[in-house]
Amino acid sequence: MATFVRSAFPAAFRTNARCIASIRSQSWGPHTGLKKVKIVEVGPRDGLQNEKNFVQTDVKVNFINKLSKTGLKVIEASSFVNPKLVPQMADGIEVMKRINREPGVDYPVLVPNPKGLQNAVTADVKDIAIFAAASETFSNKNINCTINESLRRFQDVVDMANIHGIAVRGYISCVVGCPYEGDVSPEKVSEIAEKLYKMGCYEISLGDTIGVGTPGSFSKMLRAVKQVIPLERIALHCHDTYGQALANIYSALEDGVRIFDGSVAGLGGCPFAKGATGNVATEDVVYMLHGIGYETGIQLPELIKAGNYISQHLGRPNGSKAAIAMTSKLQLDQDQV
Ligand SMILES: CC(C)(COP(=O)([O-])OP(=O)([O-])OC[C@H]1O[C@@H](n2cnc3c(N)ncnc32)[C@H](O)[C@@H]1OP(=O)([O-])[O-])[C@@H](O)C(=O)NCCC(=O)NCCSC(=O)C[C@@](C)(O)CC(=O)[O-]
Fold it and tell me: Hey, what domains does the chain have and what are their CATH numbers?
């Protein structure tokens, strides 16, 4: 298992003054000797952004409030993007103003540009995520600019975020495959990961946007990324289009990754990646991790209740196999939620 050697990285990487991430300083790497995993719940943002029918703000707020009671420490709550392109997230400021923010829980929102950052400041957001891609075509379709142009914009966003004491997470989409360009090279991913990390992102989430990855392609990609950023700053963001997400997460665990994104009930999809299905269901990830002996701090029955709540509102069955099995086993009747 590869372990990050701090001295291999320039001092500027370790003590980047622009990185507000001292408040995110908890270390998740295997070097800690602890079997701890951090879960980043993206259901309220990635899970809902592609829903055709508008989910009422009240429902979004209740959903996030329920997630806040599960032991999750990070809940990605919304995105501050062009509402004409992603109308489902148009109420992001309202959502952020109305949720009960639990102490010790972070509620990041996606921010693509300075305008989104201004909205984040208005909504008293403390944590944002910028989102780049490892494929030029996807970058253009998703955020209407080249990869290089997006990195320039993100630098402005990070600089503004630093002024306001807002921490910044970084995403990279299409880390193993692109819906338009096919295979993506590990070197391209590591190049962008390094730039986002140098910019001051406290964590880099590697997104398999269309869920095509396997443990084989993930392992090659991770090997490249681990050369340029500390292992404990790497997160994985798996979609389950090809049913590979849990296998990919298990394999990444073996490679030392300890931060995983998930979306309760397996909700999700990207409006700019046709055919991509939902994220890996957080309930399934937590069930697997607890089974192996990892601590997540999450109470699985409460998480299942939150997933059942939103599934009920969307009018479809919960997409998590663990949730379906445990709902009937624990008699978590949806009427109770
Ligand atoms: C990036 C932009 C904004 C560029 O959009 P643009 O068209 O290049 O920007 P613009 O500056 O020309 O503005 C166009 C209009 O958008 C407005 N606008 C501009 N910015 C904002 C903003 N922040 N908030 C609110 N409004 C905004 C702006 O005011 C203007 O309004 P108009 O004059 O037409 O009325 C646009 O392309 C966009 O919003 N794209 C949506 C991207 C998105 O949300 N994608 C889905 C999330 S990414 C994802 O799901 C992948 C991930 C993270 O989960 C990981 C993975 O799985 O791979």
Answer: 29-108+170-183+205-332 (3.20.20.70)
